Amino acid sequence: MEEKEVTINNKYGLHSRPASALVKKASNFDSEIKLIYDGKEANTKSILGLMVLAIEPGAEVKIIAEGEDEKEALEELEELIENDFFVEYDDEDN
Amino acid sequence: MRIIKGKKISKGISIGPVFHYKSDQLYIPDYNVDESEVEQEIDNFYLAINNCIEELQQTRELVLHHLDENHAKIIDSQLMILDDTSFHDEVISLIKNKNNNAIKAFNKVITVYEEKIAESNSSYHQQRDIDIRDIKKRILHHLINNENYIDGQIDSPSILVSHSISPSDFFNLEPKNITGIITTEGGSDSHLAIVAKAFGLPYISGIEKLDLITDQDEIILDANEEKIIVNPVSSKKKDYRKELAEYKKQQNRKIEIVDETKDGTPFDIKINIEFIEELQGLDENSYKGIGLFRTEFLGLERNAFPSEEEQYQVYRKVLETVGDKPLVFRTFDFGRDKFIDMLDMEMFHTDEAYKDWGGIRLCLENPTIMKNQFKAMLRCSKIRSFKIMLPMISSVEEVRQAKEICHEAEAEIENEHVSCDNIDIGAMVETKSILYNLRELAEEVEFFSIGTNDLAYFLLGSDRKEDSIIHHYHPKMFKAIRKIVKAGQEKNIPVTLCGEMGADPYALLGLAAVGIRSVSVSTNSLAQINEEIKNLDIEQMGELDSLIFNCEDSETVLSILKEYYENFTGKQIEANSGTE
Predict the structure, then answer these.
(1) H-type helices in B461-550, by residue range?
(2) pLDDT tens digits, B408-463
(3) A-chain residues within 8 Å CB-CB of B73?
């Protein structure tokens, strides 16, 4: 089992677009990957599960991966989160 | 006894109990299923999910085509919700372990997610909210419209009261038990208004305080006087019962459609419809044919482009219903507003980028949409003959392109021998630029239809939303229409006028003067226009056309037409009394 604490820095937190990027990435791995925020747990392969956590910008979350490819999974998810899920916003200057 | 004032949408009177309907809470059946039906329920659920995925993928393609990848990605989160296997498993488990029907199971699961999001109390949850609401609406639509679940809720005649009602809500609620409609939202050009008029149901809108009317109340809905009387005293009720009986007698009168004017000039009257249900209020012998069958409602109702099969079923039903009467289908005519309305997903309304989206050339720019529509129509050509009309044609090239797409559609229909060449294809003449190419256009099509509302817009810049009726009398309109009639005569192709102008008794005189011999009007104008044609004496009109052409503005033309009308008929009418 591997785990890591990361900060969500997206402008609007983990809303549907970053959440769908996370699900897409997580689904590439066989490992079971959980995300824990504010004492609540969600399966990173379920977008609805992630959305209802209502993760706000600046939130500290813990990611736990368990399975054959847990190391790679964690590395790639960390990269994704550090890059703000590669989501661009139209209203950048609002 | 309490009186509430509102706005008349559709005339009539109704007396009876009320039925409150909450449109934001779709009807969720509460029953459980037998063990043997569990598999079927699971299949129903997956079928709904797959249909939703197919629809959203098509929407995604459109977004990508008209905007960019970054906007298309917004759709992805909804697609991913549809793909979310842990969410599927939760629904399936309720069906399997608790024997819930699929709608009930899905609704339970999605409600838990909705509640969790609401609880989170985060200021950032708006988009999440919207995605879940959009997807819930879409999945429920597919589940509920699965015919296994159709279940009328109104079991005795009642007046329907609701914040807002969509036509599909209306049809799911057992129309035969609806005797009147009261809503907060909804204007006279809404889809529900069309349905209410078609069914001859009184309808009042603009009622803010619906809680003043409770399920225990008996009410009088008097749309003619724009009022609702809650718990009327018995003398009032008696008066209204009498009036209602009188009114019903009048309504049941059959219309005998004439085929010539008073002086024996052949004249053709057909009707414009967009819901097959509009025909239900009409006696089979009371109309001679459908001059315009609009197809946009299929998309507006569904918030997606309907599939080929879905369209085929509707077109087939229409053809079967009208028997052997002539019928003209018009291909999708989505203006920008309607297009956005159609794809009504809340997320589009929150994003500025969609404001300028859509447009007239939508179908030609997205040939798959048009091809699917042609395929559905071509398959119907086995049943009987009909015509196809292309809207908003602004160049002859567009007709050629559409025909090419039709031939592609023909080639893709397997196992059946159908051909576009056996179907008459016509053009709506309603843009300014096509007026300069009428001869060339007449070579390419089998008939012309004149769309007066858009023509007025293109010729005179009249806003459709404004009171544009006055533009119907503008000399430029009559000149343009004369030109179209002549171009049709030269090539010997029929010309029909199918806008609101043909339903205006004054304008109708001028139209007859410039050579119109065929109109297609809405069902609620049919009786009046039939009367007008019956009394029309074209021989006596003399030089009315040149009188109109010599005028400079709409007001002068209107005064001439009024004078003519009054001299002819010896009666006076309020302008537009018939177009409502």
Answers:
(1) 475-491, 505-513, 523-535, 544-549
(2) 999 998 777 888 898 999 999 988 889 999 999 999 999 999 999 888 888 887 65
(3) 17, 20, 87
Give how many domains chain A has, as a whole number: 1
Average pLDDT of the residues in B385-393: 93
pLDDT tens digits, residue range A3-27? 999 999 888 788 777 888 899 999 9
Q: A45–B85: do the CB atoms touch at under 8 Å?
A: yes
**Could you tell me if the ipTM is greater than 0.90?**
no
A22 touches chain B (CB under 8 A): no
Is A67 within the bounds of a domain? yes
> Which range marks the domain in which residue A56 is found?
2-86
Give contacts of A56 with chain B, Cβ < 8 Å: 122, 124
- What is the distance in angstroms between the CA of the first residue and the CA of the last residue of chain A? 41
| Residue B420 backbone phi and psi in degrees, to 5 | -60, -30
B105-123: b (≥16 Cβ within 10 Å) or e:
bbbebbeebbebbeebebe
Asked if the C-beta of B108 comes within 8 angstroms of chain A's C-beta atoms, the answer is: no
Which residues partner with B293 through β-bridges? B273, B329
Domain-embedded: residue A92: no
Question: Which three-class secondary structure state does DSSP give residue B273?
Answer: strand
Measured CA to CA, the distance from residue B60 to residue B82 in angstroms comes to 14
pTM: 0.68
